[in-house]
Write a structure and sequence with these properties.
This protein is mainly alpha-helical. It has helices spanning 20-65, 73-89, 96-109, 117-128.
Length: 143
């Protein structure tokens, strides 16, 4: 048996990597997209909170503008104070159910374009309940 010497083949010169630059730019691009998406999500949360606060304030202003002149001054002033308190608390954590319920009540009260004495009493009763999610019907009896 004869031993054959091992065959050594010449090595090929390494080819330049064409995709090295592409993968670097792909990583930079993905990082930039992630940063932009994070900024958009954070901005939308901040905008949503302020948007709800604006809607609550706008509804309170519209109720005051369209209040029937026959509404007694005491009921008018009480509603104004309670709406101010609600607007001041509208940005607090956990205020979303209260804000949503108030906006529903305000929408019902403003359907006909004016806010009657009964609707003011209903809003006062709702706001006296510290803005619970379940609100009495607009125009319902005050407790």
């Amino acid at each position: 048996m004869s031993a054959t010497p091992p065959v050594i083949l010449p090595t090929r010169p390494p080819r330049p990597r064409e995709d090295a630059g592409r993968s670097r730019w792909a990583g930079i691009g993905c990082g930039a997209v992630i940063i932009v998406l994070a900024a958009l999500i954070l901005g939308s949360f901040l905008f949503f909170d302020r948007g709800v606060q604006w809607a609550v304030r706008r509804a309170a202003d519209r109720i005051e503008e369209r209040m029937d002149p026959a509404v007694p001054a005491a009921a008018r002033e009480l509603l104004r104070e309670r709406m101010e308190q609600l607007c001041a608390r509208s940005g607090e954590a956990g205020a979303a159910p209260r804000n949503g319920a108030f906006l529903q009540q305000a929408g019902k009260a403003l359907e006909d374009g004016r806010v009657s004495t009964e609707e003011v009493a209903g809003l006062n009763a709702f706001l006296a309940g510290r803005g619970k999610e379940r609100a009495p019907a607009a125009g319902g009896p005050a407790p």
